[in-house]
Design goal:
By secondary structure, this protein is α/β, with parallel strands linked by helices. 22% of the residues lie in helices and 23% in strands.
Length: 278
C-alpha cells in the first residue's frame, strides 16, 4: 500500500486562521513542513480517508484525479474531516458531469450529516442525486470492498458522533490510522489482539504542551504509550514504522520540535505530502 498524508493538522490548520501564537507565526514565516492542512490520507490511487475543507487544495497540489477515486472512508463527522459542501458538486448535471457512484464508508453519523446538510442547503435530498453509495461501518466488524479490508474500531473522541479509528489491509499489508482519539477504550484494544500491523499512524494533537492528555485527543506522552500498547499486544514489532500525525498549534510545537522529541522513542513525525510505502 502507498499512503500519502494529504494533511497533518487538527481542525484549525497550521498556521491557524487569526492566530498570533509563535507556532503559527513560524509556520507563516518558514513554510515547508511547518504548514499543515487538515488531516486526510490517500491510499494508493483509488481511496481517500476523510475529505475535509482543504480537499480542493490537496487535490490540485498532489495531483489527485478525483474521477479515479472509488471510495472515501470517513473516521467521524467533524467538519475538519467531513466537508459536505464539496460533495455537493457531484450533483449531475447542475454542478458536474459524474457517471459513476462514489462508495462512502462510515458510521451512521456520517450519513446523517451528509444528507441533513445537503437537504438544508437545497443541494440534494437523496444520496442518489449525489451518486453516493452508502456503506455503514460498525465497530469491530470488518468490511471488504474489492481488495481493500476495512476494520473500524471505536475511538475515544466526540461522544455521540461514533468516531472510529481504522485498520486498512490490502495485498497482505496492514496499517492502523488512529487520529482523533484518546487512549482507546478497552473494547478496541481487545479487538486489536491478533491484528498484525505493518505500520501505524498515531495522533498527537495536544503535542508537547499537553503531553499527558489522554482523553478525546492525545499528547506526546500518551502517543508513546499508545505505541507501547501496540507493542505489548504484539500488533507491531520494534522495527515497525510508527508515525505521529494530527497536530494542533495549541500543542506548542513546530515540526522540528516534534521531530527532536519523538526521535529517541523511534517514532517519526508526518508532514503534508509525505508518502509511506507499506
Amino acid at each position: 500500500m502507498r499512503i500519502q498524508f494529504l494533511g497533518t493538522a487538527a481542525a484549525e490548520g497550521i498556521p491557524a486562521l487569526w492566530c498570533e501564537c509563535p507556532v503559527c507565526a513560524k509556520a507563516m514565516r518558514d513554510g515547508g513542513r511547518e504548514l499543515r492542512r487538515r488531516c486526510s490520507y490517500r491510499i494508493d490511487m483509488d481511496t481517500l480517508v476523510d475529505f475535509g475543507p482543504d480537499a480542493f487544495w490537496q487535490a490540485t497540489e498532489f495531483k489527485i484525479d478525483l474521477t479515479k477515486i472509488k471510495r472515501i472512508v470517513f473516521t467521524h463527522p467533524h467538519e475538519d474531516h467531513l466537508n459536505v459542501t464539496d460533495l455537493y458538486w457531484r450533483h449531475t448535471p447542475w454542478f458536474s458531469q459524474v457517471s459513476h457512484p462514489l462508495r462512502i464508508f462510515g458510521s451512521r453519523s456520517i450519513f446523517r450529516r451528509i444528507i441533513s446538510c445537503a437537504a438544508a442547503d437545497g443541494a440534494a435530498i437523496g444520496f442518489d442525486e449525489l451518486q453516493i453509495e452508502k456503506n455503514i461501518l460498525e465497530d469491530a466488524k470488518k468490511v471488504v470492498d474489492e481488495d481493500l479490508e476495512i476494520l473500524p474500531l471505536r475511538a475515544d473522541h466526540a461522544p455521540g458522533r461514533e468516531a472510529q479509528i481504522l485498520v486498512l489491509r490490502r495485498n497482505g499489508r496492514s496499517i492502523l490510522l488512529a487520529n482523533d482519539t484518546g487512549f482507546l477504550p478497552e473494547e478496541s484494544w481487545t479487538a486489536l489482539h491478533g491484528v498484525k500491523l505493518d505500520a501505524a499512524v498515531i495522533e498527537s494533537t495536544c503535542g508537547l504542551r499537553y503531553a499527558d492528555c489522554s482523553r478525546g485527543h492525545m499528547g506526546a506522552n500518551c502517543s508513546v504509550a499508545f505505541r507501547d500498547e501496540l507493542l505489548k499486544l504484539g500488533c507491531i514489532r520494534k522495527e515497525t514504522p510508527v508515525f505521529v500525525n494530527h497536530f494542533s498549534h495549541n500543542g506548542g510545537a513546530n515540526h522540528q520540535d516534534l521531530v527532536e522529541w519523538f526521535a529517541p522513542h523511534g517514532i517519526g513525525v508526518a508532514w503534508d505530502g509525505m508518502v509511506l510505502e507499506v
